[in-house]
């Protein structure tokens, strides 16, 4: 029987640099952990920001910590249309030439000249899990999700391998809705 992979919905969120955290929330401010996430050391924060695009704004967008080396905004393609930006489908951190936006916090604003992406669906593997699945870093696979009336196979799923990961697939809210991937959901790699 095929080994199942936990499928998690990654809703819109923001990653921030220390500098941008201080601009948005005040000098010396540190992010407040709301809850730990499945990936080791990653957490959702109490703090939220407004993401402003040329068309509309989206308020109360979650921040994920810890601080990063570059600020980025991860949205669904539906969110991108709402904001009025062309968010390319990219891996996290691949920001060159991505869409701009403004972030608004209680103490200030940050203009991002680039940084808005729709995250490419991906699976986090530990090296041990990757070996068990016969996967290498950057492999592209297909993942089948069985659901009530909306089962589907996601193609173009990138595999990311690191000892700092925990086994889980991440899809955005548009993809989750398309597959009815609600609650505890699992997928399997198919040939």
Written account of the structure:
The chain is an alpha/beta fold. The protein folds into two domains: 12-118, no CATH class; 121-190, no CATH class. Helix content is 15%, strand content 43%. The chain is built from four helices and 14 strands. The chain has helices at 18-25, 77-83, 127-133, 173-179, and strands spanning 5-9, 13-15, 33-36, 43-52, 57-65, 72-74, 89-90, 99-104, 109-119, 122-125, 140-145, 152-161, 168-171, 185-190. Strands 1-13-10-12-11-14 form a six-stranded mixed beta barrel. A six-stranded mixed β-barrel has the order 2-5-4-8-9-6. A hairpin with a 4-residue loop joins strand 8 (99-104) and strand 9 (109-119).
Label this structure with key terms.
4 helices, 6-stranded mixed beta barrel, alpha/beta, 2 domains, globular, 191 residues, 15% helix
Structural class: alpha/beta
Low-confidence stretches: none
What overall geometry do the principal axes of the alpha carbons give?
Answer: globular
Mean pLDDT: 96
- What is the helical fraction, as a range of percent? 10-25%
Tally the helices: what do you get? 4
Topology as H/E string?
EEHEEEEHEEEEHEEEHE
What's the arrangement of secondary structure elements?
Elements: E1 5-9, E2 13-15, H1 18-25, E3 33-36, E4 43-52, E5 57-65, E6 72-74, H2 77-83, E7 89-90, E8 99-104, E9 109-119, E10 122-125, H3 127-133, E11 140-145, E12 152-161, E13 168-171, H4 173-179, E14 185-190
Parallel strand pairs: 1-13, 2-5, 6-9, 7-9, 10-12
Antiparallel strand pairs: 1-14, 2-6, 3-4, 4-5, 4-8, 8-9, 10-13, 11-12, 11-14
């Amino acid at each position: 029987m095929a080994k199942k992979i936990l499928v998690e919905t990654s809703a819109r969120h923001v990653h921030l640099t220390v500098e941008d955290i201080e601009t948005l929330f005040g000098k010396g401010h540190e992010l407040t952990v709301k809850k730990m996430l499945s990936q080791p050391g990653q957490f959702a924060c109490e703090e939220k920001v407004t993401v402003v695009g040329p068309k509309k704004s989206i308020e109360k967008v979650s921040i994920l910590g810890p601080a990063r080396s570059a600020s980025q905004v991860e949205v669904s393609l539906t969110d991108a249309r709402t904001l009025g930006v062309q968010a390319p489908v990219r891996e996290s951190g691949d920001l060159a030439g991505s869409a701009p936006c403004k972030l608004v916090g209680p103490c200030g604003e940050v203009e991002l000249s680039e940084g808005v992406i729709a995250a490419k669906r991906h699976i986090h593997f530990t090296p041990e899990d990757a070996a068990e699945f016969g996967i290498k870093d950057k492999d592209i696979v297909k993942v089948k999700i069985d659901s009530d009336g909306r089962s589907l196979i996601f193609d173009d799923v990138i595999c990311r391998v690191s000892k700092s990961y925990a086994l889980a697939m991440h899809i955005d809210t548009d993809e989750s809705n398309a597959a009815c991937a609600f609650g505890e959901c699992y997928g399997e790699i198919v040939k």
